[in-house]
Design goal:
The chain has a single domain, classed as RNA polymerase II/Efflux pump adaptor protein, barrel-sandwich hybrid domain (OB fold (Dihydrolipoamide Acetyltransferase, E2P)), CATH 2.40.50. It is an alpha+beta fold. The N and C termini lie close together (10 Å). The mean pLDDT is 95. The strands form 2 sheets. It has a 6-stranded antiparallel β-sheet with strand order 1-2-3-9-8-5. The chain is built from 4 helices and 9 strands. Strand 2 and strand 3 form a beta hairpin.
Length: 123
């Protein structure tokens, strides 16, 4: 199993969130591995309001199309244009260069620690 950074927060839908201001959002290595080769990202526009738990985009891989959920409510302030142009970076570096969007957070949804996320996804 992919090693999870312990300083991040996680959702049951496999997104991660850091404590930055603005907060950075991405998908977990577990999700990236399960999806396979990611070939397309549809992300919200800068300035768009997102709601915790709501769908904010799509991730398309050679296997399937999956929805991306926001772990927070707030305003999108940046998207990772490099990942949009080369979605494979999400597979190769999901916790670094493969981040997806940055949000000026108004509130958070339910979040898990790395240990809670690992326990939920064991087996």
């Amino acid at each position: 199993m992919t090693e999870l950074p312990t300083h991040l927060h996680y959702t049951v839908e496999h997104e991660w969130l850091d404590d930055g201001a603005p907060a950075t959002v991405g998908i977990t290595g577990i999700a990236a591995d399960a999806l396979g080769d990611i070939v397309y990202l549809e992300l919200p526009a800068v300035g768009e309001e997102v709601i915790a738990g709501a769908v904010v985009g799509e991730i398309e891989s050679t296997k399937s199309v999956s929805e991306l959920y926001s772990p927070v409510s707030g305003t999108v302030v940046e998207i990772n244009q490099a990942a949009v142009e080369d979605p494979s970076v999400v597979n190769s570096d999901p916790y670094g260069q493969g981040w997806l969007l940055k949000v000026d957070v108004a509130s958070t949804g339910p979040l898990l620690t790395a240990a809670e996320y690992t326990a939920q996804n064991a087996g």
